[in-house]
Structures are given as structure tokens and as C-alpha cells.
Amino acid sequence: MSDFKQLHVSALMGANWEAPDWQQLETTRKGEWLLEAHSMTERLQACCATLDVEVLGLHQCDMETLTSSERELLGHEGCLVREVVLSGDNMPWLCARTLVPMSTLTEKEEDIAQLGAVPLGQRVFTQANARRDAIEVATVIVKGQALLARRSRLWVNNKPMLVSELFLPHAPIYQEEG
């Protein structure tokens, strides 16, 4: 899985994030996925019998390794980096990289560092005050294939984290409407 991680997480880190064209996207199937304001976990679970999470990496990074746009969205501090793949019915659908500022991992949110195979959305969106903002989108090329990605800031108890998601080739976002 290390080649998979290298390829897909690197693609996410190199994405050219842009504000979405809401008017154009919100009437399309792909737009419904990219602009999802609630839990991506719930949306994926609705498309399969089993949704599994595989943790690819969990480590800390210094503020200096964050991009300027990541610092603008999260502040100037080190973060916990969580990299996972979500698979629906044993098919990889989503590669995600989450930056969680160390100040977010306090009090009720300490457990976020220990989620393991529990989807982040399942943990975050159980809180009444959870919300998503700063949605950005990108198209990245992986092995010659254009894949859709999005980045958004999640808030839980007024504490931020930044989630970047790469929709893999077999993800439901690419399926035609039935």
C-alpha cells in the first residue's frame, strides 16, 4: 500500500485548490458530492453494504511544513496528519488527508488522535455544532487519469481541522445517475 499512499497522498498535497463554481456544480451529480456540507462518511455508507477505513499514516508535522493556504485555514501551529483510504464493499473510493491542529486535540476532541479505523466524519458529525466551510475543489492527474478532489475545513466545538479528499476511480461520484 506504500506505492498507493505515495501516489495518492502526494497527488492531494500537490493539488491546485480553487473555489468551486457553485452555480455550475450544484446542479450536477459530481457537484452534489464535491459540495457536500455534511458527512462524506454518511454519503459513502449509503452507497455500499460495508465501508472500511484503512489508516495509511498518522504522524505529526511542524507548522513550517504546512503550505501558506493551510496555515491561513488552520492557524500557525503543528498538526496531527491522518491519512486514510475509505473503501466501499472492498473497493477503494476515497483517499483522505486530514490536518488536525494540536490545539484541536484537547478536551472532548482528544480522542480524534485515536480514531484508528473509525471514519472521521462518523466522529465529527455526531456533534450538534459540527460544520463544514471553506470548500475548495481540484482536478488532479494520477497515472494519466483526471480525478476529482476537494478540500474543506471541518469545525467541531469551534475547533478546526482541514480535510483533503481524493475521489478514486471507482468512487460513486463517477457513476452515472440511474
TrEMBL record:
Known EC number: 4.1.3.40
PANTHER family reported in the protein's UniProt record: CHORISMATE PYRUVATE-LYASE
Question: What species is this protein from?
Answer: Enterovibrio norvegicus
* Catalytic reactions on record: chorismate = 4-hydroxybenzoate + pyruvate
Which pathway does the database say it acts in? Cofactor biosynthesis; ubiquinone biosynthesis
Could you tell me which Pfam families the record lists for this protein?
A: Chor_lyase
* InterPro entries, sorted: Chorismate--pyruvate_lyase (IPR007440), Chorismate_lyase_/UTRA_dom_sf (IPR028978)
The highest taxon in the source lineage is Bacteria
Question: Where does this protein reside within or beyond the cell?
Answer: Cytoplasm
Q: What does this protein do?
A: Removes the pyruvyl group from chorismate, with concomitant aromatization of the ring, to provide 4-hydroxybenzoate (4HB) for the ubiquinone pathway.
Q: Which GO terms describe its molecular function?
A: chorismate lyase activity
Name-wise, this protein is Probable chorismate pyruvate-lyase
Source gene?
ubiC
Q: Which residues take part in binding substrate?
A: M40, R82, L120, E165
Q: Please name the top-level EC class of this enzyme.
A: lyase
Keyword flag Nucleotide-binding: no
Q: Principal localization? A: cytoplasm
Q: Family per UniProt?
A: Belongs to the UbiC family.
Q: Which UniProt keywords apply?
A: Cytoplasm, Lyase, Pyruvate, Ubiquinone biosynthesis
